[in-house]
Amino acid sequence: MVIKVFLASSSGSTAIKKKQQDVVSFLDALKVDYTELDIACNEQNRMWMRQNVPEEKKPPNGIPLPPQIFNEESYCGDYETFFDAKEDNAVYTFLGLPPPPGSKEAEQADKGLNGTLEEHPDDAAEVPVEERNGGSHREEEEEEEEEGQAEGESGQADDEETEGDTAPAEEEDEEEAEGEEDHNEEAQAEEEEDQEREDLQSEEEEELQQLEEEEDAEEQEEDEAE
C-alpha cells in the first residue's frame, strides 16, 4: 500500500505551505512510506486529485485544496481530518495502515480489547470468616457516621443555596461570551479558507496564462523561421 500526499510546491499561500509541511513532517517522524505528488507542476496529478476527492468532502466551489491524502486509490482525508486523527493518536487508522507494535495507537487498541475481559465474577476472593462475623458491627458504625455526615451536610447545603442564587446568571454570561468567541473563530477560519481558495485559483490562472504566452511565442518563432 502506497500513501499518496498531493501537494502544491509553488503555492503562494503561507497557510497551505504550513499544512503541507505539517503532514509530511509527521509522516517522516512516524517513518511511514509515502509519495509526494505535485499538482502545481503536473496537470495529471491535479486532475486525478480533483476527480478522486469525494463530492461530499469538496468545498462549496468544488476545488479541493492541498494537502489531500490517499492510500492507493482510497481517499483518506484532507489536512483537517489528518490533524484530528493526529490529536486522537489514530493516524495509522486514518491512513488505513495497521499500527506498529509498541505505538500509542496499538496500545490504545490493546487496552480497548483488554477492557472487555476484565470483568469476571468468579475471580472475586472469598471473604474470610473473621470479616463476615464482624461485618454487622462495622455496618452499625458506618451507619452512625453517615447519619452524622448527613446532618452536617444539610446545614452546609442551606448556606450554599444562598450563594448559588447568583450562579445561573454568571454561568449564562460565561456561556454567551464563549459562544461569541467560538463564532468569531469560526468566521475567521472560513475567511482564511476562502482566501486560500482564491490564492490557489489565481495561481492556476497565472500558470495557464504563462503556458498560453509560451505557446504563442513558440508559434511566432516557427513562423519567423519559415
Automatic annotation (TrEMBL):
Positions of the UniProt region annotated as Disordered: 114-226
Pfam families attached to this UniProt entry: SH3BGR
Compositionally biased tracts (Basic and acidic residues): 117-139
Biased composition (Acidic residues): 140-226
Leader sequence segment: none
Record PANTHER family: SH3 DOMAIN-BINDING GLUTAMIC ACID-RICH PROTEIN (PTHR12232:SF1), SH3 DOMAIN-BINDING GLUTAMIC ACID-RICH-LIKE PROTEIN (PTHR12232)
Similarity-based family: Belongs to the SH3BGR family.
Name this polypeptide is given: SH3 domain binding glutamate-rich protein
